[in-house]
Write a structure and sequence with these properties.
With 245 residues, the protein is α+β, with helices and mostly antiparallel strands. It is 36% helix and 13% strand. The protein is built from 9 helices and 9 strands. The strands form 3 sheets. It has a 5-stranded antiparallel sheet with strand order 6-7-5-8-9. The protein has a two-stranded parallel sheet with strand order 1-2. A two-stranded antiparallel ribbon has the order 3-4.
Length: 245
């Protein structure tokens, strides 16, 4: 296995290689493959990059090795790699996760699968957050939790600000000044809802208008974070700006 990012391991620590070995093991295969990962989603950012890479590897090798796993078999292999991997094999664009995060219920709107109708600006500071460290710091809120599916589908950004809380955000922002500064910048840039992504350290801002999101994207030209703008147009790729450019 090779990778475009020299800082990532290409041994058994890499989730892509783990996916290949677990898929082969599940079907008693001795087949091999040469894998190359062109890394684009920042790692250590809470964006699910490693999990999505693993899911893509499973799909690729299923075709290459001419396999026909049942949905249950594929789900079991995916969850053995990581709790987030099954989501990236899911056809629904959004899902409600319970358990370890691998029990998925698709989110539906009134007539079709739910899709976020707002533009999103993702800002990735230079700091990386190790998942075990993030989990050591978090204390999940056990009471007064909102009904997340209905809250998300409401598309009420004012309500999101008061009720849609990532329990990782406070301890991670308190321990990493870069994350707190990124969060504050997105708020000042006019985002209507700002949150840590997963266990961090990426922070995203949701805007109610594409023009305001694009303005914030341009204003961040000289900032140190990597910026990724998704306007909600499914026919175009996200716009990306490397840090300080």
């Amino acid at each position: 296995m090779t990778c475009s990012d020299p800082t990532l391991p290409t041994d058994d620590e890499n989730l892509c290689l783990q996916a290949a070995r677990r898929l082969a093991g599940a079907f008693d295969l001795t087949n091999g493959a040469t894998l190359h990962l062109e890394k684009r989603v920042p790692h250590g950012a809470g964006l699910g990059g490693g999990s999505s890479d693993a899911a893509a590897t499973l799909r690729l090798l299923i075709r290459l090795w001419d396999l026909d796993p049942s949905p249950g078999q594929l789900h079991d292999v995916a969850r053995s790699i990581g709790a987030d991997v099954p989501f990236f094999l899911h056809d629904a664009p959004a899902a409600y996760a319970t358990g370890r995060g691998d029990a998925l219920t698709p989110l539906h709107g009134p007539e079709e699968p739910y899709r976020l109708p707002f533009p999103v600006l993702v800002a990735v500071p230079s700091t990386e957050i190790a998942t075990p460290d993030a989990y050591d710091r978090v204390t999940p809120r056990e009471t007064d939790r909102p009904g997340l599916p209905d809250l998300v589908r409401s598309n009420n950004l004012t309500h999101w600000r008061s009720a849609l809380v990532n329990d990782f955000e406070a301890p991670i922002a308190a321990s990493r000044a870069e994350v707190a500064a990124t969060r504050d910048w997105l708020t000042d840039a006019g985002a209507d809802y700002v949150s840590l992504s997963g266990s961090g350290g990426a922070v995203y801002g949701v805007f109610d208008e594409v023009e305001r999101a694009e303005t914030a994207f341009e204003q961040g030209r000289e900032r140190s974070e990597q910026l990724h703008l998704m306007t909600g147009d499914t026919t175009s790729y996200p716009r990306t700006r490397p840090s300080g450019s």
